[in-house]
Amino acid sequence: MSATPNASPTVQLLSPAGVFAPSEAAAEFLPYLDRLTEADHRRFYRDMVVIRRFDKEAANLQRQGQLALWVPSHGQEAAQVGSAYATRPQDHIFPSYREHVVGMIRGLDLVDILRMLRGVTLGGWTPEEHGNFHLYTLVLASQTLHATGYAMGMQLDGSTATGNPETDQAVIVYYGDGASSQGDANEALVFAASYQTPQVFFLQNNHWAISVPVTRQSRTPLYLRAGGFGIPGTQVDGNDVLASYAVTAKHLDDARAGKGPALIEALTYRVGAHTTADDPTKYRDPDELAYWVARDPIVRFRAYLQGLGVEQEFLDAVDEEAEDNAADVRRRALEIHSPEKNVIFDNVYAEPHPRVQEQEAWLERYEASFEGGDA
Amino acid sequence: MSDTIVSAAAHAAPASGTAPAPAGPEMASLPMTKALNAGLRKAMQDDPKVLLMGEDIGPLGGVFRVTEGLYAEFGDKRVLDTPLAESGIIGTAIGLALRGFRPVCEIQFDGFVFPGFDQITSQLSRMRNRHEGQVIMPVVIRIPYGGHIGSIEHHQESPEAYFAHTPGLRVVSPSNPHDAYWMMQEAIASDDPIIFFEPKSRYWPKGEVNLGTSGTPLHASRVVRTGTDVTVLGHGAMVSVLLQAAELAAAEGISIEVIDLRSISPVDYGPILSSVEKTGHLVVAQEAHGFVSVGSEIAATVMEKAFYLLEAPVLRVSGFDTPFPPAAVETHFLPSPDRVLEAVDRALAY
Question: What is the CATH architecture assignment of B27-210?
Fold first, then answer.
């Protein structure tokens, strides 16, 4: 451990080399680590490795024409895994569209995520049946307001701040440095602060909004914006899974206990492209990429676990599980069936709607008119 | 010409073509603001999940006083004065609806809805569809709209076409206090998102409200004056203009049938086509800009469905395709009874 604690404002528990060396800012979050067992540590590692391998497989599927698009999360695993494990079963999670491992941790089948990207559904799962992990939202920051409204509902129906941490609920909403510029993200912070919602804003600053660097979005560290809204803000090393866990655990605990919302800025890096439609070599400095690759969250945590004496057999078994999972995902992704055309018309409205009904009936007649080959 | 002139009081009464209901304990004479207020109160009493959200709707009761007294009656957990941000209002209403509430949002003026347009069109309208039917979105967005009140810029707009164009939304507009009372309750009870346009120039005239029965479903159009020569159709404040036009025409021996559209999306074509079958002429009137408008859609559809019933093209009377002008000249912009009659004359001249 270094003699002089890191005096940066960023909460960091593990150095990039994987040494436990809490920064000064980490002091108030250290007690939350006591909740973690060695089994939790292993699970953190396992989930990060599994999702990175999944990510690679999904990108391959896209390259092979099996997905319309893929949205990689490579590099952001620690921010997502740590924060996801800080949630409780009764909490609700509003993701953006890159939080694949958060969904996995909440019980979502990763193939369900691929269904949307394979173009067979606009959603893909039922949040209530998958750990309250809500649908991906593709218009940036729209979900921040849905999350805030949902958290307002928890207050109004008395499901939070009762003093019982086993049942009190909270919301965590994920968004990014690009989305932080959207009006909706700022309106959500205004509403959340005003009503003191039980809510954590988890801002993954991965430094790039497609091709535009975070410096175009903000001239101030993003966590400092929290102060302007009158809520606590914490900057955390998002490539440090323990720090991400501890910071989120504290702020979610506070939210459930009625202490209001908070903003977490997790500093991380989008190692891959924005999506498979993008070429980051056109706008990014290779030295910057190298800097962040040297701070890889999985390498860091593996070094930490090895320092604790975790055996090589475990690490190898995790790699094998990740391979098996990727193969399983690939196999099942290729088996995804296209829906019938009735999905065009189903569920546009909850109650009967004459125009939609007429158009569905017309399409049925029109397509039936070609049957028999004599059209 | 055989006119059956239905009185203005009957226009406010429930069923079309029937005699006015006798005044009784269930009848009340109310302006639309108070009818809407009573409708909101009834919905809030009937269902504890109904919430009101908006700017200045609490102790003030809204800039038009539509929510007056509800804050005192139901408290700040049912009547939420929100921060001043329309996207925030709609976006949080979506979250509340996901949580099981039935939010009723007030947009203060027609021209202020656009900061919330993205949440309405990209999120609210699609939420049930992208959840594959696993959720409902019972959100009502109340928008005072239209001209005739001599107000300033962004306070006299008629933006209903933007919302009628959007799949997943329903759009309605009452023209009288009776409909306002019932349509508000029916809109809140609907499991679909509804944009509820309130014609603000009709906020203050009183009309008879039958508190006992609605008489007309939410999405039904309704004949409010029967006639035989020309059908004229409109919604919201335009209905009273059409009734005035019909009155003037009757004096000249022209019998006009007036249809109150009531529901802008979906459109109830049954009464419209029946009327056109009888009159062979249709004039569609609206305050909104005519280009790509609700009136254009109805004109096109009636010509598709009833071409051989028509003796003349369907004609449109609309606001001009200009920004709503300074109030000093709004009477030149807004369709008047005379402009409606000019179109009626053209239709009959074919």
Answer: 3-Layer(aba) Sandwich (3.40)
- Is residue A142 less than 8 Å (CB to CB) from chain B? yes
Rounded-to-integer distance, Cα A93 and Cα A99, Å: 10
Tens digits of residue pLDDT in A336-365:
999 999 999 999 999 999 999 999 999 999
Tell me whether domains B27-210 and B219-349 share a fold. yes
For residue A338, how many other CB atoms are within 10 A of its CB?
9
Distance of alpha carbon B329 from alpha carbon A22, whole angstroms: 70
Distances (CA, A) of A142 to A60, B25, B54, B64, B90: 29, 48, 19, 30, 10
CB atoms within 10 A of CB B76: 10
φ/ψ of residue B145, rounded to 5 = -145, 165
Beta strands at B140-145 and B102-106: parallel, antiparallel or unpaired:
parallel
Q: Which of B82, B148, B71 is nearest to B116 (CA)?
A: B82
The confidence score (pLDDT) of residue B2 equals 39
CA A286 to chain centre: 26
pLDDT(A153) > 70: yes
Does residue B19 carry a pLDDT above 90? no
> How does pLDDT run across A257-275, given as a tens digit for each residue?
999 999 999 999 999 988 8
Q: Which residues contact B349 (CB under 8 A, 6 or more apart)?
A: B312
B178 is catalytic: no
**Domain A24-334, CATH 3.40.50.970 — does that match?**
yes
In this structure, the number of other CB atoms found within 10 A of the CB of residue A98 comes to 21
C-beta of residue B175 within 8 angstroms of C-beta of residue B223? no
Tokens, residue A285: 């400095």
- Beta carbons of A150 and B96 less than 8 Å apart: yes
CATH of domain B219-349: 3.40.50.920
In chain B, where the domains are located = 27-210, 219-349
First to last CA, chain B: 19
Q: Choose among A145, A148, A153: nearest Cβ to B101.
A: A153
For residue B18, pLDDT over 70 is answered with no
CA distance B277 to A347: 34
Best probe of the A interface among B51, B52, B98, B263, by most A CBs < 10 A, is B98
Instruction: Let me know how many helices (H) and strands (E) chain B has, helices first.
Output: 13, 14
Cα–Cα distance for residue pair A72/A55, rounded to 1 Å: 6
Where do the DSSP E strands lie in chain A?
92-94, 171-176, 199-205, 208-209, 212-213, 233-237, 262-267
Cβ pair B102, B141 in contact under 8 A: no
pLDDT tier at B15, thresholds 50, 70, 90: very low
